[in-house]
Here is the input.
Amino acid sequence: MTDTVRSSAPTGRIMPARDLAQIAIFSALIAALGLAGPLNIGPVPITLQTLGVMLAGAILGPRKGTLAVLLFLVLTAVGLPLLAGARGGIGVFTVSPAAGYLYGWLLGAAVTGYLTARLLPKYPFWPALGATILGGIVAVYLVGIPVMALNLGLPLVTTIGLNLAFIPGDLIKVIVTVLVARQVHKAYPGLIALPKGRREVD
Amino acid sequence: MIGLYSPGTSLIHRAPTLLKLFLLSLCVVLIGSSPNPWIVSGAAAGVVLLFLAARVPVRAAAAQIAPILLILLVTVPIQGLLSGWTVAALMAGRLLVAVALATLFTMTTTVTAVLEAFQKLLRPFRRFIDTDRVGLLVALTIRCIPLVSDIVREVFEARTARGTRGSLLSIAVPVVVRSLYAADALGEALVARGLDD
Here is the structure.
């Protein structure tokens, strides 16, 4: 009975169907990019899964972007082999050395989305690049590196050293994310609700 | 969508999910905090016995544990030099045992069972989380993975056909735009079925 009362009041809805669909599709996109395998740009193999995480924040914004990442992580945790290399299960979230990066992705999508929402509708290149570096690299490593040090029992400095090799690939992904987001936000305005007090200028 | 689950009828397959989850967390905590090499070796032997009892395919299990070995190949020498080989071996052993146990849990529990267990664990938070919508979202995403995989595959193929190698952008833009179109179509389909009413 309470169910019918609740569902007949659309004003109480937090998430319209359109948003739900975007969250599901981007969650699936992060999975699909992992299944696609690494892509060779010159001699460097690049795993596209983290590109999906950056895109989720930069294209869907903080709320929908973070939820898309969260949904992807839940599906992985319950045992779907969706992480790059067809891995999954609860092990990758707890005892695996790389477990922290997965939580970092959540923070990363939130930070990227939050900052991107403040740069729209103009989305200037350099500030956008800074925003995506802060979310897509700094925030992810901020959670990932301490967890790796903890799970492997290594000093923090050594762990940071081990991670430096991934920075160039990450920077390429950040640039791609910003360039894609620029085109998409121009062609598809309204994907991210602007912060209060700001209006779309056309 | 095929998960990591491998069907079976062993005691481990049939044990209640929440019990398995609880025992797994307990073992991981106990082994993780144990400074005694004998306990860790004993646990490793126990894990091998559990795998034998569950009769999960060796190859599939190895594929989940192999990435850890790669990481250990780099970190064990570093740790051995920094804090002694006993500590390094102990840490590697603990990690392998814990990862193997978690893999065993995932391989002997269906996705549906784990989702149900999660739902039970989330029950105290029901006031804040609309479980119906979460369920719908999970089902939608599982359905969308092959859809978006097809989009990614088609864009990769188009790129190969045009012979334009090297540009990540020439993949990312069409993939994102086509995904957003797919999301629009999906959203309309949900509205048409009365989701927003």
